Amino acid sequence: MTTTKAEAAKLTQDMMLRGVIETVVKESSVLSVLPFMQVVGSALTYNREETMPEASFFAPGDPWFSQTPTWATHTQELKIIGGDADVDNFLQQTYSDPNDLEAVVLESRAKAVAHKWSDSFFNGDNDDDPKSFDGLRELVPTEQTINTGDDGGELTLDKMDELIDLVRPGRPDALLMHKRTRRKLSSLRRESGNLLETDVDAFGRRALFYDGIPLLVDDFMPVDEELGSGTDLSSIYAVKLGSDGVMGIENQGIQIERIGSLEGSDATRWRVKWYAATVLLSELGIARLEGVEAA
Q1: Both 237 and 161 in a single domain?
Q2: Domain count, the chain
Q3: Alpha-carbon gap, residue 86 to 95, rounded angstroms
């Protein structure tokens, strides 16, 4: 069973947990749409198709032959994301509404969890930090990567269309970019006599679309990438979400645990934790346009 974190927030009956999940979702544009698969155990082992069997034309009486596809087995371990939140007992006791103070403290911790997850979703490198999971930059295949030039270059609508066409079958479910890149894309559309389409998302916020594909803007997408001699560059990712592309995996979702009174201070500790990671189930479900200049 898969579900987005936005839907998970609606289903939980724990009001404190619901508030934490909603905070995490609102802090991350990706988490509002990315489906998550529940994993039993500490890792997910899955097969990714490498080659398809060929089909041929036959004449009457020709011998037929059989071919089978080839698969590669991949394993993604769940990673532990979270942190502790301490509520001062004196402030909680003297606060007009103790639940409000706890909510404020836990909301702050939930934001930190969302920020850490978002950073890893784009920039995570398991070789550099074994405690983290690989982000999109590491997951996207070389064959699914294009650039604006050997040293980077200006974004063009032709490159946007080329990026979208790399994702197949069908079209991407989302285009991920930094807000700096979104401003440039908006400018290009105005110059061409068209504007980016607008609608509202699940939280009633204004959302932008390019050729019917949602634009998800995230501040954790870097704008200091290098390509050749080019610097201060960024990337755009086109992704399918779910079993045809990128999906999240988790065990029991986001959890809140009351640790209890601290021995060394007059405070109560809460723990926000999440056993989760990101997997790429189909290499054709993601594409990257790198080397996008600031202007």
Answers
A1: yes
A2: 2
A3: 15
In a domain, 63, yes or no: no
Condensed to tens digits (0 to 9), the pLDDT of residues 114-164 reads 888 889 999 999 999 999 999 999 999 999 999 999 999 999 999 999 999
Please answer whether residues 198 and 137 qualify as being in contact, where contact means their C-beta atoms are separated by less than 8 angstroms. no
- Amino acid letter at 42? S
Alpha-carbon distance of 164 to 288, in angstroms, equals 9
Amino acid at 144: Q
The secondary structure element, H or E, covering residue 80 is: strand 79-88
d(CA 149, CA 269): 51
* Residue 258 and residue 102 in contact, taking contact as beta carbons nearer than 8 Å: no
- Give backbone dihedrals phi and psi of 65, rounded to 5 degrees, phi first: -130, 160
**pLDDT, tens only, 199-246:** 766 556 677 889 889 999 888 899 999 999 999 999 999 999 998 899
Domain that holds residue 22: 2-49+75-133+245-279
Cβ–Cβ contacts within 10 Å for residue 202, how many?
13
In sequence order, what are the residues at sequence separation of 6 or more whose Cβ sits closer than 8 angstroms to the Cβ of residue 110? 19, 20, 21, 23, 24, 27, 254, 272
Pick from 287, 288, 256, 285: which is nearest to 273 by CA?
256
Residue 67 lies in a domain: no
37 and 114 in a single domain? The answer is: yes
**pLDDT tens per residue, range 41-87:** 899 888 877 776 788 888 898 888 887 777 788 889 999 999 998 88
